[in-house]
Design brief:
Elements (H helix, E strand, L loop, with lengths): L21 E4 L1 E6 L5 E6 L2 E4 L2 E7 L3 H8 L2 E6 L5 H7 L2 E2 L6 H5 L3 E2 L3 H5 L3 E2 L8 E2 L4 E11 L7 E13 L21 E3 L2 E3 L14
């Protein structure tokens, strides 16, 4: 007698996790401080469609304050090998004084996040915030719209357009190509507050560059 349960009949648990970071690339958003220096904000909520990127940023942080004043940024995408440097940034804030809720979460003020995380600033071509030299992929962006949703006032939705894209030669398919080689690109994935890289390739979409 076949007692195997099909996937459509399998039981699922009804759960209420505190967070829903179900596996997304980490990005380091660099924005311009009021004094002309560059702030770094680690983010785990973003998606792209064509040349448009949508970011989720916490309300009350230095990053969103900077974007409201100077609506441009760089989306720096670290690879998996950079997870420790990303984690060094996790408890730092460029906001001074540190908001009470962030103090309770263990944050401390750090005006120079590049030095604190062992990262190197690099000049951008079209925006004022600096890029992060160690990140293999860097996307200079202009902010198109910032929304503070009524249903969730603790974060902002930032809509942007890519104006310059920089990639290390190691992750580009071949000299003169505009295509990233997915076999060489291993983005850092934030998976329920744990860091992962990519596993082996399983296949490719019919529109993929071979």
């Amino acid at each position: 007698m076949n007692t195997k349960v099909s996937p459509t009949e399998a039981s699922h648990l009804n759960i209420q996790p505190k967070i829903l970071y179900y596996g997304m690339p980490v990005i380091l958003a660099t924005t311009l401080n009021e004094n002309g220096t560059t702030n770094i904000s680690p983010l785990s909520s973003s998606w792209a469609l064509g040349r448009y990127l949508v970011l989720g940023m916490g309300f009350g942080g230095q990053g969103i304050d900077n974007l409201q004043r100077t609506p441009e940024l760089v989306v720096n995408v670290p690879d998996a090998a950079m997870w420790q440097q990303v984690e060094m940034l996790g408890s730092l804030t460029g906001k001074h004084p540190v908001p009470d809720y962030k103090v309770q979460m263990g944050y401390r003020y750090e005006p120079d996040k590049f030095t604190a995380a062992g990262l190197t600033p690099a000049a951008s071509l079209s925006v004022k915030p600096q890029r992060i030299a160690e990140c293999p992929l860097q996307i200079e962006c202009a902010v198109k719209k910032i929304t503070f949703p009524d249903y969730a006032p603790m974060f902002a939705i930032v809509e942007t357009e890519a104006v310059q894209i920089h990639a290390l030669p190691d992750i580009v398919k071949k000299t003169g190509s505009d295509h990233i080689d997915p076999s060489r690109w291993n983005p850092l994935i934030y998976n329920f507050r744990h860091y992962f890289g990519l596993g082996d390739r399983l296949g490719h979409n019919y529109r993929a560059e071979i």
